Structures are given as structure tokens and as C-alpha cells.
Amino acid sequence: MTHRYTFLINPAAKSGHAADVWQELETYLDDEKIIFEKFESQAPGDITKYAQHFVQRQPTNNQDHLVVVGGDGTLNEALNGIRDTMTSKMVPLAYLPAGSGNDFARAYQLDTVPINRLKKIINLTQNSSLEPEFVDTGVYIDRQHQTKRYFVNNLGIGFDALTVNLTNHSYLKKRLNRLGWGKLSYFISIFKALSIQDTFPLEVTWQKQTEYLPHTYLMTLSNHPYIGGGVEIMADANPRDAKIDLIVIENTGSTLRLLYILKQMIVGKHYRLPEVHRYTAEQFDLKTGRLEYGHADGEELGTHTFDLSVTTQKQPFWL
Ligand SMILES: Nc1ncnc2c1ncn2[C@@H]1O[C@H](COP(=O)(O)OP(=O)(O)OP(=O)(O)O)[C@@H](O)[C@H]1O
After folding, report:
1. Which residue has the CA at smallest separation from atom 31 of ligand 1?
2. In testing the pocket of ligand 1, which one of 74, 75, 176 has its CB within 8 Å of the most ligand atoms?
3. Substitution site in 8, 9, 10 for ligand 1 pocket (most atoms within 8 Å of beta carbon)
4. Alpha carbon distance 78, 108 (integer Å)
5. Could you report the predicted ipTM of this complex, rounded to two decimals?
6. Structural domain of residue 11, as residue ranges?
7. Of 84, 113, 131, which residue sits at a domain end?
8. Contacts of 23 by beta carbon, 8 Å cutoff, 6+ apart
9. Angstrom distance (rounded) from CA 68 to CA 75
10. What is the pTM of this model?
11. Per residue in 100-118, pLDDT tens?
């Protein structure tokens, strides 16, 4: 039976580098006479719509494959698209990393050389003895806005969300991405965020326990160890255990102390510090008491107080 591929491409990922990646892939697909169709996003939100459309029209055979080309934000959009639809179909996702952070690719050790990754996806999907792997994705209900959304990597409130916001709006990001120094814009934003971010009260409830953390600086929920393009914030987070991992870092002292905590985080010794709180559970309820930035997979959630219920759901991926 013939395999067909639907590619959802975000040409704007990595400040336009993904468009070049796609050109190279398209040439290969044509040369190899692989049957495919492509949908290139014109604006944020398009990938979600294309993914919904794929699920709605997908016949019940497993010869039709959905491949996402872009960064973590693009993958987030695709995941939300396939889950938004009312159908109970579980659509496996294939992902070809072409973004700046690529934390999903890092977590699952995906090949980041585009042609190699494409060949792997074709191999995986055409080998009838292989199955997609079910791994954890985060699902959160925003009680204030009555919405339900999904994330592939992490959801953050406070310092890392502010850093995401500053990076996304940084004029340097584009330039540095073009030079291949995309990470530098993230580091510059970290320093800016350090001078802006204040602490906020957070209430964490899990397994019938509640903890109140009045001086929260950073709060990250994650399916796997990485945030921000390779910062190993929770080395022991397991993306296959049907549990969600949470880290909260409080700031009760000076900026110097904060820098020390962040430095300890980079070398993986932060868990032992009293300001660092680490949890793993099947479900969390989280409430913040001040206006804060939020993000999910680097996609901005706006600035507001948060009242979230977060758990995990398995999603099949061609890894
Ligand atoms: N055609 C488009 N033009 C502008 N922005 C787009 C377009 N299509 C999608 N987007 C938006 O581009 C943003 C960035 O995408 P994405 O996160 O995939 O790339 P990235 O930021 O380079 O990579 P990473 O998240 O891995 O660091 C997303 O918010 C997405 O909604």
C-alpha cells in the first residue's frame, strides 16, 4: 500500500531558517517520488487549523502520516490541533525539528540533521513491524478561561515565562538566529528578566496535600528534563511515567543568591538548596496570587493570575 505524507511547515521557525530546511526536504521528497502534500503556515494558529483538518478528513488507514516541521511552538500548535477535534482518533505525530530551542528533539534524542530525520521518519512509518511510541504530554485546564490545552515540553509561570516573552520580542533574536547564535538571545533575555522579575505567591496541591510558597520566582511543569533550549532543569523527569514533574524556585534573598541558585541549576546541583522545591505527581492544582507571565512550549499565555489543573495524557509519536 502507498504511504502518503502531510507536511505542516512553519517557515517562520528559527527566524525563517525552517523555510530553507523545507526546501531541502522537498527536493528529497520529489527525487524519491514520495507522495506528499504540504501546508505552510501564513500566521500563528494556522498549524493548529491544518492539524484539525488532517484529523477530520483522515481515513481510518495507517498509511497517511502527519509530519510537523518547525520548532517546539509549531509542535505545540499541531498537538493542540489534533486534540481539539471531537473525534476519538489517536493520530500519531512525526516531528522534524527546525526551530531554535528544539527541547522536544533533545528530550527524545531526535536527529537534528533534517535529511537524516526525514529518512528516519520514512523508515519508521513504512516499516509495518514498528509502532509509534506513546509518551507523556501535559494537559492543563485553565479554570479562569474555561479552556483545555496541551503542551509537549513545559508550562512555566514567572521567571522563565518572562524570559520567553523577552526573547520572543527581542529584535536581536532574528539577527542572532541567522548567525546560528540563537541561544545567545535567550541568555541576554535571562539577564534582562533577572532585573525585572519579582516574586509571587503560589499554592500547589497534589495528592491531597497543599503547599503555599509565598516567594515563588520560577515555576515550571515539564514532561522531560529540558527548558529554554537545553537547560536541564529536572534531569530526573521521565517523559514516559504518566506523571508530570514540577519545580518551584523561591527567591528569599538577594540577586547574588539568585545567581548562585541559577548557577547551581546549570551544574545540576540545585535540588539540595532550600529555595528549590521538586515534585512529581499524576496531577497538580496551581494557583498564583499576582499577575504573572505564563508560557506553554514557548508560546505566550499572556499576563494574568493562574488557576490551573494539570495532568498528563499519552500521545503517539514516531520517535
Ligand atoms: N507563518 C508564520 N509567520 C509568523 N509566525 C508564525 C507563522 N507560523 C507559525 N508562527 C508562529 O511562530 C512561532 C515560533 O515557532 P516555533 O516555536 O516553532 O519556532 P522557534 O521559536 O524558532 O523554535 P523553538 O520553539 O524550538 O525555540 C510560534 O509562535 C508560531 O505560532
Report:
1. 44
2. 74
3. 10
4. 18
5. 0.96
6. 4-131
7. 131
8. none
9. 6
10. 0.95
11. 889 999 999 999 999 999 9
